[in-house]
Amino acid sequence: MTARIIDGVALAEKIKEEVSVRTAKLIQQGIKPGLAVILVGADPASQVYVRNKAAACQKAGLHSIVEQYGEGLSEADLLARIDALNNDPAIHGILVQMPLPKHINAHRVIEAIAARKDVDGFHVSNAGLLMTGAPLFIPCTPYGVMKMLESEQVVIRGAVAVVVGASNTVGKPMALLLQAAGATVTICNSKTRDLGWHTRHADIVVIATGRPSMITGDMIKSGAVVIDVGINRGADGKLCGDADFQSVQQVAGALSPVPGGVGPMTIAMLLVNTIEAAERTLAK
Ligand code: NDP
Fold this sequence. Notes:
6-stranded parallel sheet; alpha/beta; one-carbon metabolism; NADP; single chain; globular; THF_DH/CycHdrlase; 2 domains; Rossmann fold; oxidoreductase
């Protein structure tokens, strides 16, 4: 078997076109959806992510601002900027790019963002709403994965799903979404004994560990759907995922590639969350 390759680029383009249409409608009604992205420090990967997010906003017709600060920005100054953006009516979504420098408490920063503008969905209120089944914002990466599964018409109800990775930003919300859609979900972490035993039983495997090529074909059930969230820089300088693409492709029924899979979907869903935040202000 050779897996079907899930084209995250094409699906993200389709979603962004829908966002453009919704943006144009909002603008007609006097609201230009606005996203503010804050970047602290000079992490090269973060700079690329922030640039890509801003470019996608502009292309879809949204107002976007990028605030870039040096590594030495104090936590108090960052919190003051967030407070100003919380009160800025031109801004509907606020995103602080992670990771932050060590002297800044990331939890405090996330909690400072107004929940109604927390388009990343990381605020504790939004995490709680997702957990209790009434999400305001779904975190962009797991949201994108759900859209990929939907577009591939993967049957989630009754399926066995394994999420490898348990972060607050990817693994945990991913597991909640799959569970809400009717899957029986196992969340694995770095302490999991015999990871392959778990993954081999799964109809759907979502991998988000940041460990290049750690899931190999022999750990996957024939025909399973494998979504690779990982973004790693290989020794050859090229991007690669957490799945060993060559061997997994031989066994899986469908597989998302890196690059060109979950990454573009994450950005598309950020735009969706921003437009939803702006539409809610109109509904008021
Ligand atoms: P974190 O480092 O926050 O979490 C990694 C998780 O993986 C932890 O729960 C950890 O376990 C688990 N883990 C690590 N090693 C193993 C292992 N050998 N076996 C099983 N589980 C393991 O990472 P993130 O969730 O933030 O990101 C994961 C990956 O996804 C990264 O490559 C990141 O770059 C990428 N990413 C991609 C995005 C996209 O848009 N495509 C967006 C966000 C992230 P433990 O809890 O025990 O420490």
